[in-house]
């Protein structure tokens, strides 16, 4: 379902008061329903778009200096300086929004409206469970290559002509100044529409038939433009909204009285976990120390000649190797079993040109093995307790220490 489009009431209207609303069909284009109702009685929709009437906006064209768009705070300060002399209010009291795809170094349009009024509307809607997903203007300047737009709106006793072109947005009474303004426009190429209530006045003064577009349909057309007024501190999409939401949640959890018991519970849980982890670590250290002492006791009991224990497993291995040599037994690291194991896995026709054995390491030169053959030999020798690697044209074979 498409978001509900709400038309912002002009001040001093209450944020919880009545809103004109419109909703498009599933295609997002055709008008499905429209009306006017209090905030509490609006059609059900968790997400809404907020439309800002033309009377609440002013338009300004500025050229942003290079490097001004590095951050939102810097850009806001630059806009304050550029627009200060063109505004009736202080820049701090206004909300600014740049045109879509604005770039530094080129003229850009800036929309301005009352910040407190707009913020109160957004906060009031969200407090009522209506998340504002987008804020759109009623009218906006047109691209330089687009046709001008002439829209006749208002009531029969006070029709107004709004002109939207590359020079901005101008809204004037239809009679007098409005007609004089329209005389300088290319009416043959302009897109002209009128609302039903002022259609007769528009056709009489413009001397032509004017297509009729109902106000809700016009608002839905405005919602399809790329303009997005929710910028800076009123950003309602993407990472900015997620950041504001996260900060609000953290602030509530940290200071709200109703969360005091939960905060104390979290502290107690963390302390319990910390104490438990330390107790578990102490138990594991004691178990590890007991195993070390048992290994030392086994070493000294099996080999009484060992007086100082530094590394019990390594010293045990050395003593077993010495005992094997003393009784004439063959160890895994001796020359004969090592050569026998290697001969069983060497590719056919691979004969070394030189063989050297020293300190439990076998070196063979001149085998001319391919990388795939070395990998095959390494995989075959590993289950037998041997490590195999190459250094240049040398093949090195050594028994694993833990075997």
Automatic annotation (TrEMBL):
Chain ranges of the GspL cytoplasmic actin-ATPase-like domain: 33-139
Which InterPro entries does this entry report, sorted A to Z? Answer: ATPase_NBD, GspL_cyto_dom, T2SS_protein-GspL
UniProt-listed GO biological process terms = protein secretion by the type II secretion system
Q: Which Gene3D superfamilies match?
A: 3.30.420.380
Q: Which GO terms describe its cellular component?
A: Gram-negative-bacterium-type cell wall; type II protein secretion system complex
The domain of life for this entry's organism is Bacteria
| Protein name, UniProt field | General secretion pathway protein GspL
Q: Organism classification, top ranks?
A: Bacteria, Pseudomonadati, Pseudomonadota, Betaproteobacteria, Burkholderiales
